Amino acid sequence: MAYVGAQPQKQLTKVTSQSFNGDGSTTAFTLNRAVNTGEELEVFVDNLQQEPGAGKSYTATGTTLTFTQAPQTGTGNVYVVYRGLAEVTTRLEIDPTSTVTAAAFVGDGSGLTNAGGGEYLGDSGGGLADIVRVHEKQLDTSITIAANTNGLCAGPLTLATGVTITVSTGATLVVA
Questions:
Q1: Is 95 left (phi over 0), alpha (psi -120 to 50) or beta?
Q2: Do residues 111 and 151 touch, judged by C-beta distance below 8 A?
């Protein structure tokens, strides 16, 4: 699967829950699994749903759930539901007149084909210099990176009008 940024989840995550005991003074609780934001949780205190966000009921990042005010004393009165994460099906969509920057992609480029002119530079003795490739800055021909292969090019890379880069499922493209 092609992706931009961090590698996407490959499967659905089972929805789970967790309970805590409020004591009237503790504001930080340790979650069983890491989250990026409080919006990935549904939090209830004494069966009342709480609102996530800075300056609201709670925030969450990593494995820490932090309340703005300590939940009152109770057994299992703080209830957290982890929202399930759906599989990400990412499509690489780039405006053909835009410039693709190095930070936008991940991969090694071994399956990139029809990428235009270029040449390999090196000593042909099997050293590291053999892996340097010089290529044009603009892609003038649409290309497809086949499944189970990787594509790599040095950026910034400009796509000519109407030119597309198709990254097949199971393939990767990096612009470094």
A1: beta
A2: yes
CA dihedral in degrees (67, 68, 73, 77; nearest 10)? Answer: -40
pTM: predicted TM-score of the whole model, two decimal places = 0.43
Closest by CA position to 155, among listed 108, 96, 116, 103: 103
Cis-peptide, bond into residue 52, ω within 30° of zero: no
Domain of residue 62 covers 16-82
- Residue 175 CA to residue 104 CA, distance in Å, equals 7
Do 68 and 119 reside in the same domain of the chain?
A: no
- Structurally, the chain folds into a number of domains equal to 2
Distance CA 135, CA 69 (A): 58
Report pLDDT digits (tens) over 100-158: 554 554 555 554 444 444 554 445 555 444 555 667 778 888 888 888 877 777 767 78
Q: Answer whether residue 40 is part of any domain.
A: yes
Q: Are 153 and 109 in contact (CB under 8 A)?
A: yes
